[in-house]
Specification:
By secondary structure, the protein is an all-alpha fold. The chain contains seven helices and no strands. The two termini are about 30 Å apart.
Length: about 130
């Protein structure tokens, strides 16, 4: 047991506390993105949308994710890591709250695209900050 503890301490314990804060933030961001897996179920079951149309809305989220990574990289270079992380997380939470109260399908599709952008924007900032710390 002592060898396992020593291995764990050497492997993970040597990382600075800032790394673990960043890692926790990345985990929270991914949990928020996990909630989007339920979007097609909501659209087809609760809203009666066809499978094809629900797929297009989820695809819009994915396309937003592609744009979000690019935008996140640019903003990380221009604004800095902390500012990009803060504003992208605030935007993602506000957009998801907006999606929860949206009633029309075009509004849900637009918000899904914007949520995809906001969920992906922190990625480059997280990676750059982790590289700086470690």
């Amino acid at each position: 047991m002592r060898a396992v503890r020593a291995w764990l301490r050497d492997t993970a314990g040597g990382l600075p506390a800032v790394f673990w804060f960043l890692w926790s933030g990345l985990l929270i961001n991914r949990i928020g993105a996990f909630a989007m897996l339920f979007l097609p179920l909501y659209l087809t079951d609760a809203r009666g949308v066809s499978d094809a149309l629900a797929g297009l809305v989820v695809g819009a989220y994915g396309l937003g994710g592609v744009a979000g990574v690019l935008l996140g990289g640019v903003l990380t270079d221009r604004w800095g890591r902390r500012r990009t992380l803060l504003w992208s997380h605030l935007a993602a939470s506000a957009l998801m709250a907006g999606m929860a109260i949206a009633s029309s399908l075009p509004a849900i599709a637009l918000l899904a695209t914007l949520v995809g952008i906001a969920h992906s924007m922190p990625g480059p900032a997280f990676v750059a900050a982790i590289v700086d710390v470690v």
